[in-house]
Write a structure and sequence with these properties.
heterodimer; A: mainly alpha; two-stranded antiparallel sheet; 3 strands; 51% helix; extended; B: 451 residues; alpha+beta; OB fold (Dihydrolipoamide Acetyltransferase, E2P); five-stranded mixed barrel; 13 helices; 38% helix; 26% strand
């Protein structure tokens, strides 16, 4: 309304206009230069000039302000797409406002106190709200987008919850551009299956990021359609783009993809070839898998040297009376192997024959080993001794294969019993590998295994494994963690040695378990060997745990009321959020 | 009273927080974890015990029904007011069903409440008994005369400085810098004219305020000159305008207008702070009288002003205006009910009418920078690097004030609108429109604070 956009009445002097003539601009010029240098027009020079100028300027200022008129409206943005989801129940909306008010950078100081960490609960609140399919209150969108901007892990859930209006907002504010880039799978900006023309246009003309999310969205909806769309432009794509597009076929990979992937094995780009080979090897019935089964099978055999295991260097682990596995690594990497994605050049420090062997075994379908190795089950195969120190190499390759092919039977065999005393199972695998193997098991079995592991080994190594368990934790797992924390407390150590697990427990323990923790809230009598003050810190940590669990229970309850009792119908339009 | 069922929203509770860190700390305490023996009464009292770092829990009690705003008491040593425990307790009360059951106040809470009630009674009795406690009217008149003389001397001196400035040119003001204005402002403080002093101080900032500063500096110099002249010739002015000049100069007035009883809707509440003082402005809308009233309350630097009213709620109260033509500033005389949710919204107008109303208001008070305005059916629209509020049904629009366009509340407004019309309350003036509160279209939907 000031300056340029306002149209102040000009020219015509109003009633009672000052004696001094001249426009506002002339007054400003006189004022800027000083009346000694420039006398305002129509004013006698001399001592009175400044006062006359001020009088005239005062009248003119008030006149200009009083005469302000609205500006012309600029072009209006297209309204945001309607969000058909029902609004949040009022209690849940209040909760969201509280969670968002607790933004990072809280000057909490070292100790965490007994109060729950609200920001840490936002991810599961969002997940629950999305499960119930509620729409975000529009006025919370800026705070949600800011939160998602700072934490990439929040983005998919936050953007799903934020809905179409968040994308509309992101187009207006460059701070939130990430939302346009990282539209989640079933993103709302992506054209629906019934809009083939929009799909074609976006695929032909869209930016790379838009095309990737389009392809991912279609792949999630209709795997074959995505592949066909990709094939239409495949030869003309750039190598880096081909790699990214190929990667998006990982979701919903199926046997129908094989012909396309086989062709991609002849791609100009080595990375594309390698990815195509990797995807094919995850299809156990593919021709590539069959070729790999033959190659890998040729390298591993059962040696029945019952009782005759005389010669010293091949006697695996000194077994005198049992079969063992013997490994004969490939002597060369031929053109066929290379075409099937085997990388010929070993990294520095690795023998190339073992490097090739690892790749062959990793890509060979696990189902083929039983026939090859005398009809043994995975457990029996894993239990066989391996000659000549090949065990580590072979088992590690099987682990990678089990993860890649998501083979639960082999994962189970390679993990072994959770209570195995040594650091590793029979596969002697690392914690990271075990976490990956666990991910192929169903959630109940996973929880059971980790519970067994914690029961034997305690919490010190469990953090990574807990991370792959389904939330909320299944009862046996929750009980194992609580018992282990209890044992750790009785052992007299400080709770911050377990702060990682504590934090996980706050977020992942089933809220129904809160009642079982009541006994731990009191400050225990200090034992002789306990660390000074540890008891009260533990009590504080458990109070926070219980407080957080109660809060999570309340959060879940608030979202579970479907809001229909308040809106009086499923229409949900225009109701209070 | 039947206010037990009426709970505030978390936003309304958090609006009471004196600063950002209290908001955060309070949010963390708004869960059942640290609380025990929490409860609330029908009279609008909430209490609870909060486990802190010490062995003894803190005793926290809040009286939300008080006529002058929520009152707090907590046994913690914090100097924040309200402290995080009081905020957490209110959040708990606002948030979870059953977390704060209805009940009898425990002894320690009852004791404090009884003390408050007693003091309130005494105050009322004292107010009824002697309407004018001033000891010696003759001495008071003498003091007022002395002060008027000083202000006249100050205004005359300021006139001299302004004419000197205009004679030499505003360009010299840019070179002279801030010091010259600071010194003049100090002279005005000595002259007991705080209104003149703060205007002079603001002049000092204009040369550094970017392109177009000579225009703004001339405008403000001219208005300051107008105020000086208004004071020097106040005897010739009509009574209403003279009262406006007195209050603009900074003479204390008292809210002795006739008390207006109404159901007041809290339209907006926001603070401005400088090094010395935090000023809280609360806009009220009389749902029956249609009047708009402004309540001001002050806090020393770093402390929140005491009066706090949650936006979007309404309460029954008597409000009295300060003297001055078209004066909106008022004082809360007495509150009869605690704030409660309401579906009432202020009636709005168009952008064209809003600009006209500001122009008319300048008749009564030419120094007015903005008037409180509710716009109906406007859409926030980006316009060349800034934003405007465009009428949904015509092609006229009010640009946002530069400060509002940079405020994070803008994005809440844009998000609420989503390109569709909304109702917006704010301040409309010569620098543009400053949105303070918005309501979505449709019969329901809560007020969304933007400031």
């Amino acid at each position: 309304m000031n300056g340029s956009t306002a149209s102040a009445p000009e020219g015509t002097p109003s009633v009672g206009a000052p004696v001094v003539g001249g426009t506002w601009e002339e007054l400003v010029t006189s004022a800027l230069l000083g009346t000694d240098r420039r006398t305002p027009p129509g004013c006698p020079p001399g001592g009175q000039a400044p006062v006359v100028l001020l009088d005239a300027a005062a009248v003119e200022t008030v006149r200009r302000r009083a005469g302000l008129r609205p500006a012309r409206a600029a072009g209006r943005p297209e309204p945001a797409a309607a969000d058909p989801r029902p609004p949040l129940p009022p209690a849940a909306a209040r909760r969201l406002a509280m969670l968002l008010a607790d933004r990072p950078g809280t000057p909490g100081g070292g100790r965490r106190g007994t109060a729950p960490d609200l920001m840490e609960l936002l991810p599961q609140w969002l997940a629950a709200a999305n499960t119930h399919g509620f729409a975000a209150p529009p006025q919370t969108l800026p705070a949600l987008l800011d939160a998602a901007r700072g934490r990439t892990d929040l983005r998919p859930a936050a953007l799903e919850f934020a809905g179409p209006r968040a994308l509309w907002l992101a187009r207006l504010n460059t701070d939130w551009r990430f939302a346009l880039r990282s539209t989640p799978g079933g993103g709302t900006a992506v054209p629906g299956a019934d809009e083939p023309e929009r799909i074609q246009r976006l695929w032909q003309e869209g930016l790379f990021a838009e095309r990737v999310s389009l392809l991912a969205a279609i792949r999630a909806r209709e795997p074959a359609a995505a592949r066909e769309l990709l094939e239409t432009t495949w030869p003309t794509e750039r190598a880096e783009d081909r790699l990214m597009f190929l990667d998006s076929l990982r979701t919903g990979l199926c046997a129908e993809d094989e012909p396309f992937l086989e062709r991609a094995l002849a791609d100009r780009s080595r990375n594309v070839r390698a990815t195509a080979a990797e995807l094919l090897s995850a299809l156990p019935d593919s021709a590539l898998a069959a070729r790999m089964a033959v190659r890998a099978g040729a390298c591993v055999a059962v040696d029945h040297m019952t009782g005759t295991g005389g010669d010293g260097d091949s006697g695996a682990g000194g077994t005198k009376d049992g079969p063992a596995l013997v490994v004969e690594a490939p002597h060369e990497c031929d053109a066929g192997m290379e075409r099937d994605g085997v990388v010929a050049k070993a990294p520095v420090g690795r023998g190339e024959r073992s490097w090739w062997l690892g790749q062959l075994v990793e890509a060979a379908p696990l189902g083929s080993w039983s026939a090859r190795l005398g009809g043994r089950t995975p457990e029996e195969v894993v239990a066989l001794p391996v000659a000549d120190d090949w065990q580590g190499e072979l088992h590690a390759a099987w682990c990678r294969a089990a993860v890649r092919q998501r083979n639960a039977d082999w994962s189970r065999a390679l993990l072994g019993a959770p209570s195995t005393p040594e650091a590793g199972g029979p596969g002697a695998v690392s914690l990271a590998e075990r976490a990956k193997l666990l991910a192929t098991l169903d959630s109940a079995e996973r929880a059971e295994w980790v519970a067994g592991f914690i029961g034997t080994h305690g919490l010190s190594e469990a953090f990574q494994l807990l991370g792959v368990c389904a939330v909320p934790w299944a009862p046996p797992l929750g009980r194992a963690v609580v018992d282990a924390l209890n044992i750790a407390r009785d052992a007299g150590s400080y709770p911050w040695s377990f702060s990682g697990v504590m934090g996980l427990a706050e977020r992942c323990l089933d809220p129904a378990e809160a009642g079982r923790l009541d006994g731990l809230l009191a400050v225990p009598d200090e034992g002789e060997d306990a660390s000074p003050g540890a008891g009260s810190y533990w009590a504080e940590a458990f109070q926070r745990l219980v407080g957080t669990l109660r809060l999570r229970a309340a959060m879940a309850e608030e979202l579970a009321t479907d809001g229909t009792d308040e809106t009086g119908g499923t229409g949900g339009r225009g109701t209070a959020a | 009273m039947t206010q037990q069922g009426v709970r505030w929203t978390a936003d309304q509770v958090l609006a009471l927080a004196p600063d950002v860190s209290s908001r955060k700390a309070g949010s963390k305490l708004g869960a059942a974890g640290p609380w025990s023996e929490a409860g609330s009464s029908d009279e609008g009292t909430v209490w609870g015990l909060c486990k802190g770092s010490g062995s003894k829990p803190y005793q926290t009690v809040v009286d939300i029904a008080d006529a002058t705003g929520p009152a707090y008491k907590c046994s913690c040593p914090s100097r924040k007011f309200p402290c995080k425990h009081a905020l957490g307790l209110l959040l708990l009360w606002a948030g979870e069903d059953g977390a704060v059951p209805r009940g009898e106040a425990p002894g320690w809470a009852e004791e404090w409440l009884a003390g408050r009630r007693k003091r309130a009674e005494e105050k009322r009795a004292a107010a009824d008994g002697s309407p004018s406690p001033s000891a010696d009217p003759e001495a008071a008149r003498h003091r007022a005369e002395r002060r008027a003389e000083r202000i006249t001397a100050g205004a005359t001196e300021l006139e001299q400085r302004l004419t000197d400035l205009l004679r030499g040119g505003l360009a010299t003001a840019e070179q002279a810098g801030y010091g010259m204005w600071e010194e003049t402002a100090a002279r005005m403080v000595d002259a007991q004219a705080p209104g003149l002093a703060s205007r002079v101080r603001e002049l000092g900032a204009i040369p550094a305020s970017g392109p177009g500063w000579p225009v703004r500096l001339l405008e403000e110099c001219a208005l300051l000159h107008l105020l000086d002249q208004g004071w020097l010739r106040r005897d010739e002015l009509p009574e209403g305008l003279a009262a406006t000049v007195r209050s603009r100069i900074g003479l204390p007035g008292s809210a002795d207008g006739p008390p207006v009883r109404d159901h007041w809707l809290v339209l907006a509440q926001y603070e401005t702070a400088d090094a010395r003082l935090t000023t809280r402005r609360i806009w009220l809308h009389g749902t029956e009288s249609g009047r708009t009233a402004l309540l001001l309350s002050y806090g020393a630097a770093g402390r929140a002003p005491e009066l706090s009213l949650p936006v979007g709620l309404a309460f029954e109260a008597e409000v009295a205006a300060y003297p001055g033509a078209g004066q909106l500033r008022s004082a809360l005389v007495e509150r009869f009910t605690p704030p409660a949710p309401t579906d009432v919204r202020p009636t709005g107008t168009t952008t064209t009418r809003a600009a006209e109303r500001y122009g008319k208001a300048l008749l009564d008070d030419p120094w007015l920078t903005s008037v409180p305005t509710t716009l109906d059916r406007v859409i926030p629209v980006p316009a060349g690097g800034s934003w405007q509020l465009a009428d949904a049904d015509t092609d006229s629009a009010l640009p946002l004030a530069p400060s509002a366009a940079a405020h994070p509340g803008l994005w809440r407004l844009v998000a609420l609108s989503g390109g569709a019309p909304v109702k917006v309350f704010g301040e409309c003036g010569h620098r543009g429109f400053t949105p303070l509160t918005a309501w979505p279209e449709g019969p329901t939907g809560q007020a969304v604070p933007l400031c």
